[in-house]
Specification:
Largest interface: A-B, 30 and 24 residues
Number of domains of chain A: 2
Largest sheet of chain B: none
Number of strands of chain B: 0
Radius of gyration of chain A: 25 Å
Helix content of chain A: 25-40%
Oligomer: heterodimer
Number of strands of chain A: 13
Strand content of chain A: 25-35%
CATH class of the largest domain in chain A: Alpha Beta
Strand content of chain B: under 5%
CATH superfamily of the largest domain in chain A: P-loop containing nucleotide triphosphate hydrolases
Number of helices of chain B: 13
Helix content of chain B: over 70%
Structural class of chain B: mainly alpha
CATH topology of the largest domain in chain A: Rossmann fold
Shape of chain A: elongated
Chain lengths: 323, 269
């Protein structure tokens, strides 16, 4: 297994207070592994430590303890800088430059020159959908357009690994669809995408693996299929030719019954019910079996459960005790 | 390394041009031309001296404002608006960022000083052309005295020192405080020599040592001001210019190094 990214008991404390500063633990012993060429979702509620983690991975802040390896090297290594891209949360750029000038500037930092630089800038502006506004000063850009510029600058060096901090924020539905397509395109090109988000539908649609952080601590990480596969919250049974009396006989065994048409019903039962026995009973009453499907937990259900459980737990005390 | 610093510097210059910082040159030219006209009406024989004095003093004030007000925002603005995040994850090391910012403002100041010097000489040439008798009245120093260039050169080095101080404060403090500290140091810097002789006026040995220590730590800006000497035709030797410039560059270099030290360890929360 080749790793694009690895952290080992990564911890970050900030000093809180002026006269008697006390450490505040923003991230607590995060151990993560991200494989190459995967789309990894880093999920958590606001203030969970997502941005802190991304800043540690890009060495915008330094860890209190723990180890980070990006593409096999320390995060600040010049070789790593040349091979990664980063979109900060709610990015801000220079008012006095246009999108084209900004990308030309950043391309220059990677040593790109002349025709190669012009082609790269032009194709990226096209790709993120702001080619028409390339010469407009950035101060006239909307939040969504700045987000697109942010994506373009993160990809200016054709990175092997790209960090995206809340890439969908500020985007309208069309913009979100474009960014989803872009992320999948990057993956198909062999790029590893590590993105933080609290929009779970995006993570569900894009990620092969996710990690969930709450209160600076890792709650879970793994393949989405593994996390959600056996989380069956109930069953959805569709039967036809059912008499109303047969439906009424279900009583409290059915969580919800929906009439679709004459004699055709959708019956939802809990995970604890035995669907085979139920089908047998209804068939004995003249019903005909149409379909039976498990109702799986969505990532959102899972996320809410994990976060509430963690938040309900006695506070671990993120402001570290003295002494 | 040089290429990356050059790129950062070029963009500092570009920003100052687009933020219309160089418009101060227009004010400078208008001030100088209108003053030369007015003074020409009021004084006899002293007008060349006054114009030189005014030109150098105005250059000093404009230069100081640019050095301080742009200098204190150089790093702070990037950190406050978080645009620095996009830069520092690229192949640009933190010390290159700081040095690039300094070089960029130094370039802006160089253009300013060069244009102001050019404008002063142009006004002096215009005055001579309008009144050819002026050359005979200017007995202490010739009207188009090349010595004035030495004053401009030393003024520029002084502004580099001020810029480096502003940049240093900008790496860890907001613009209001940084500007206050930098202006404070500018004023103190002009009276620095008094600190060296502090022992003559205080009895306490500790206070004398403190004065001596401050004398070495604080910038000594008085030697950069040769306006009076130049205007009155007193010689300013090349050795003096070289020595004072060397001191200025060394001090500015040390301040930039300190700025790098602070900035390199900084967490961008």
């Amino acid at each position: 297994m080749t790793l694009a990214l690895e952290t080992e008991t990564l911890t970050k404390d900030y000093a809180v207070g002026f006269w008697r500063p006390r450490p505040y633990r923003a991230l607590d012993s995060l151990t993560l592994q991200v494989e190459r060429n995967e789309v990894f979702g880093f999920l958590g509620p606001n203030g969970a430590g997502k941005t802190t983690t991304l800043k540690l991975l890009t060495e915008l802040i330094y860890p209190t303890s723990g180890r980070i390896s990006v593409l096999g090297k320390p995060p600040g290594h010049p070789d790593v800088r040349r091979r990664v891209g980063y979109l900060p949360e709610a990015p801000y750029f220079y008012d006095y430059l246009s999108a084209e000038e900004l990308l030309t500037y950043f391309a220059g930092l990677f040593g790109l020159r002349g025709a190669e630089r012009a082609t790269r800038v032009s194709s990226l502006l096209d790709r993120v959908g702001i080619a028409g506004e390339r010469r407009l000063p950035l101060r006239k850009f909307s939040k969504g357009m700045l987000q697109r510029v942010g994506l373009a600058q993160a990809l200016i060096n054709e990175p092997e690994l790209v960090f995206l901090d809340e890439p969908m924020s500020g985007l309208d539905p069309l913009g979100r669809r474009d960014v989803r397509a872009l992320i999948l395109e990057l993956r198909d090109r062999g790029c590893t995408v590590f993105f933080s988000s609290h929009i779970l539908s995006d993570a569900e649609a894009l990620c092969s693996r996710v990690a969930i952080v709450v209160g600076g601590q890792l709650v879970t990480s793994g393949r989405l299929s593994e996390i959600l596969a056996f989380e069956v919250s109930g069953w959805e049974l569709v039967m036809c030719d059912l008499q109303p009396a047969a439906v009424e006989s279900l009583g409290s065994a059915a969580r919800k019954v929906t009439r679709i048409s004459e004699g055709r019903y959708t019956i939802e039962v809990g995970a604890e019910a035995e669907p085979e026995r139920l089908v047998g009973e209804l068939r004995a009453r003249g019903g005909r079996f149409v379909s039976l499907n498990p109702v799986r937990t969505t990532l959102e259900d899972y996320f809410v459960r994990q976060v509430t459980a963690r938040q309900a737990a006695p506070p671990a005390g993120r402001v570290m005790p003295e002494g | 390394m040089g290429r990356v610093i050059g790129l950062v510097a070029y963009h500092v210059f570009k920003e100052s041009v687009r933020d219309k910082v160089l418009y101060n040159l227009v004010f400078f030219a208008v001030l100088l031309i209108s003053a030369s006209y007015l003074i020409g009406q009021l004084t006899a024989g002293q007008d060349v001296k006054i114009i030189k004095d005014l030109g150098l003093a105005a250059s000093s004030v404009f230069g100081l404002f640019i050095a301080v007000f742009i200098g204190v925002g150089l790093v702070w603005k990037e950190v406050d608006r978080r645009s620095v995040y996009n830069l520092l994850v690229k192949p640009l090391r933190r010390h290159e960022f700081i040095v690039g910012k300094f070089v960029g403002l130094a370039l802006t100041l160089a253009v300013n000083i060069a244009v102001m010097a050019g404008a002063l000489y142009a006004v002096l040439a215009l005055m001579t052309w309008m009144d050819p008798g002026l050359a005979k009245v200017a007995i202490e120093a010739p009207v188009m005295d090349p010595q004035v260039l030495k004053a401009f050169a030393l003024l520029y080095v002084q502004l580099l020192v001020v810029t480096s101080v502003a940049l240093f404060f900008s790496t860890f403090s907001g613009p209001m405080l940084s500007a206050a500290f930098t202006f404070g140091l500018y004023v103190v810097g002009h009276f620095n020599t008094d600190l060296a002789h502090f022992e003559n006026v205080v009895k306490s040995q500790a206070a004398a040592w403190l004065g001596k220590a401050l004398y070495y730590i604080l910038p000594n800006l008085a030697p950069f001001d040769v306006k009076a000497a130049v205007v009155h035709g007193q010689p300013v030797s090349a050795a003096y210019v070289v020595l004072t410039t060397s001191y200025g560059l060394l001090y500015a270099g040390a301040m930039v190094a300190l700025a790098v030290l602070v900035f390199s360890r900084r967490d961008f929360k």
